[in-house]
Specification:
single chain; alpha+beta; four-stranded antiparallel sheet; 2 helices; 25% helix
């Protein structure tokens, strides 16, 4: 039975079956782990990872019956750990710098971040919120959920997206950092 692709992580980048990209080149990252159900049981778990930028791209799909479950899980965890240690902190810092130092509006997945607040974008529409109404953004069930505070102090969900949307995985920590800086 074939194994997972050859995944190599170094302090400078990723290599997956010969396709390589340096951490400093990466502009977008996305990953997903989601159970696939059939007849009331889990028939597979999708594990996907993608990073791209600077003309390069690495992508891996760790699903299907041709790879042992433990191998798929270990490969996926290796890539996610590399992203969380080397890629995501740098991308979050870049976005914060653009917003804080330059007053820029930056779109990350379906959320637009600005010094005065954030907006949830769907198609041509955007619902805007000041940072004072930010509740939290968090990961749950392969999705990033964004919450806003209501007038009564409780939270309401304003949107959700799968974590395989480019840079969606940045949002929980990035929005918390923006709230601390601008809220």
């Amino acid at each position: 039975m074939p194994g997972v692709p050859v995944i190599t992580v170094s302090e400078t980048g990723l290599q997956i079956d010969g396709d390589a990209i340096g951490f400093d080149q990466i502009e977008t990252v996305a990953y997903l782990r989601r159970a696939v159900h059939g007849s009331g049981t889990i028939i597979d778990v999708l594990r996907r990872f993608e990073a791209s930028g600077g003309g390069g791209r690495v992508s891996v799909k760790l699903d299907g019956a041709m790879v042992e479950r433990e191998e798929k899980e270990q490969g996926w965890r290796t890539l996610v750990a590399a992203s969380q240690e080397w890629i995501e902190p740098r991308l979050r810092a870049q976005v914060l710098e653009r917003i804080h130092d330059h007053g820029a509006s930056v779109r990350v997945a379906k959320v637009e971040l600005r010094p005065d607040g954030f907006a949830w974008r769907t198609g041509l529409r955007a619902k805007r919120y000041p940072w004072s109404e930010f509740g939290r953004a968090y990961y749950a069930a392969s999705r990033i959920r964004v919450m806003a505070k209501r007038g009564d102090g409780k939270e309401k969900q304003i949107g959700q997206m799968f974590t395989d949307e480019p840079n969606a995985v940045l949002l929980p920590k990035l929005m918390a950092d923006c709230f601390k800086s601008f809220g």
